[in-house]
Amino acid sequence: MKNNCSVFLLFAVLSTSLFYACSGSDDDGPLAATIVGFWSYDSHEIEARVNDKDFVTFLVEELGMNEVQAQFYQSLLIASYVSTEDLQSTTLEFNEDGTYEVSDGTDTETGTYELKDNSSILLMHSEDSTLEFLVEELSQNRLSLTFSEEEQIDLTEDGTEEAIHMLISLKLKK
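That's the Lipocalin-like domain-containing protein sequence above. Prediction below.
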């Protein structure tokens, strides 16, 4: 599910069904100085789960696929959520005034950001939405962000929807 107008181009092709909104008043005050600066792609990991099982394991156990078939379908699912090429060409700049600019080498988006809960949550606000990221690591030269999304789909065609959970971790460096 590609979304060409994504606010945060790091995840330009994520479906937009479950973006997390900002809530509460747990503001940390001034923005942490370590996030300010120019960040570039270092690496990423993508995990797909169904009903808390690894996606491949679910397909093998629940749908009777062999390992090769299951891995192929996992590749298709991941490709529908995230473009590896977009991730690898991502740059992100956080400014001291609370604004950011993100680029995938072709398109550029801007917005505002804030850190919450002792810098463990990064909220990125745009004209269209707010995206929430878990900050796994934040140092002078390393930033690790995790984005989570869940959809309900009846994969087994038994009338019961399964929870498909995508977890995308992105590591950036200054």
